[in-house]
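Reply to dn_fold:

You asked what the input looked like. This is it:
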Amino acid sequence: MSEMSTTGAPHRGALILVLGILSIVLCPFLGPAAWIMGKGDMQKISQGLMDREGRGLTQAGMICGIVGSVFLVLWVLYIVFVIVLGVGLAAAGAAGGAGSP
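and this is what came back:
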């Protein structure tokens, strides 16, 4: 089993973990990248095409990427809500102001 752990391409677990953590802490736009890279690398690790030593780091980074992606979706929904609310209040204010003497 130890022979198979070092065969294949080198893992990118540290990179994926850093992207995942940054997606949670700093920039949620990195979340989908960490998620997609992690998913692809996990498949390669399972197939034996990539170094199995990076499985834990890759999995942790992928999970952080999923959390970052959720934060990204929530952030986008919040921005859309604020814009819609602003436009609605502006329209209500303009309609209310036009009818008053």
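DSSP finds four helices and no strands in the chain.
Hope that clears it up.
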